[in-house]
Amino acid sequence: MSIDQMAAAALRLLPPETAHHLAMRMLLRAPRRMRREGHARLSVNLFGLAFPNPVGLAAGFDKNAEAVDALLALGFGSVEIGTVTPKPQRGNPLPRLFRLVADRAIINRMGFNNDGHEVVARRLEERRGRGGLVGVNIGANRGVEDPVADYVAGIKRFADLASWLTINISSPNTPGLRDLQSAGQFNRLLGRCLEARESVQGSRRLPLLIKIAPDLSDRELAMLVKTVVDMGGNGLIIANTTIARPPLKAERLAREEGGLSGLPLLETSTSMLARARQLAGPNLPIIGVGGIHDAHSAWMKIVAGADLVQLYTGLVYEGPRLANTIKAGLVRELDKRNFRHIGEAKSIENARWVAGWAAEEDVPEPSGPEPAQRPRRAWWAGARRA
């Protein structure tokens, strides 16, 4: 076990949220020696941005843009902060974060706890000129009459502060939020968001991405992909946490409500990503999220069709050197195949991963009592384990 893994294990002795707050304080006090140079073979140019490497930190770790520079210094090619809502929000009652250590997984029902647009925007304004790619993940406050208006407000507030914006309509922890993924509502949402983007357009075209749930049916996924392509969205992030419960070792904690992330999500989210790539064609940017914990799992996303990857839960279990470890491993993967650049690996195993998605479509729903939140796809029955 490395020193970083030992430190991560020590933090796991504390309650999850306590450990997270402590980790954030440690990051804020750490030296800010930026390590963005990376390997030229791992650089990615996407929607007008030059990513030094494809390994990003997903939204959720730094909700309030408190430690952006320290996180970039860990070797990430980009950091996505948020989810941020217009008004500050406390989120759901404690406890709301659970570690499933034996499964290398987390269940959360945080509920978009954050400091709100104005506080987060002020922190981003204070770091202007420091460089680094920072996306902003935007959401809607709980209980608002018109959630789409909250996304519009987010676009207008962060348009000149974000490298890109992510519309988060896939968190399972805000009632009604995932309904925005349905056909009629999604068209209206994306249309208004694109209009808002055009109204604040400056000298560059602000990339607008959609983060979707892994619990969609193939028909729902196809509708979303077609709408994004047809209407001019800039990309997809696949996928958020799942409300499904595959077989888990931590059986007691598995009964907690909320979104499951981490290793159990790796294969299903990768198959979904591959299917989205097949539907969208080669040009729509796709960021792969779900279960990334080492170079091999990051490579899986890329060969399935991802342009970039993001992680969060893996950082909890593997420690702060994970981004650099993954980058070194990706270079070794390129060397094995005599590839000159990471772009040569994109989608080379797409067909194999799409076959995994198709096989899962006909799996029947499990019998037994109706759960409080049932996913649309029973992908866990017979699913392969990573």
Number of contiguous helices: 13
Order of helices and strands: HHEEEHEEEHEHEHEHEHEHEHEHHH
Q: Which topology does CATH recognise?
A: TIM Barrel
Report the principal-axis shape.
globular
CATH homologous superfamily caption: Aldolase class I
From the coordinates shown, what is the CATH architecture? Answer: Alpha-Beta Barrel
Secondary-structure-based class equals: alpha/beta
Fraction of residues in helices?
25-40%
Count of individual beta strands: 13
**Average residue-wise pLDDT:** 90
How is the biggest beta sheet arranged?
8 strands, parallel, barrel
How large, in whole angstroms, is the Cα Rg?
Answer: 19 Å
Number of domains: 1
Question: Runs with pLDDT <50, length 5+?
Answer: 362-376, 378-386
Task: Label this structure with key terms.
disordered C terminus, eight-stranded parallel β-barrel, TIM Barrel, globular, 386 residues, alpha/beta, single chain, 37% helix
Describe this structure in words.
The chain is of the alpha/beta class and 386 residues long. It has a single domain, classed as TIM Barrel (Alpha-Beta Barrel), CATH 3.20.20. Helices cover 37% and strands 14% of the residues. The protein has helices spanning 3-11, 16-29, 68-72, 117-126, 147-158, 183-199, 218-231, 251-254, 266-280, 295-304, 313-318, 322-337, 350-360; strands at 44-46, 49-51, 55-57, 78-84, 97-100, 105-108, 134-138, 164-168, 208-212, 235-238, 259-262, 286-289, 308-311. The strands form 3 sheets. An 8-stranded parallel β-barrel has the order 3-4-7-8-9-10-12-13, surrounded by 6 helices. The chain has a 3-stranded antiparallel β-sheet with strand order 5-6-11, with no helix packed on it. The longest helix is centred in the middle third of the chain and has 17 residues, at 183-199. The relative contact order is 0.14. Residues 362-376 and 378-386 have low confidence and may be disordered.
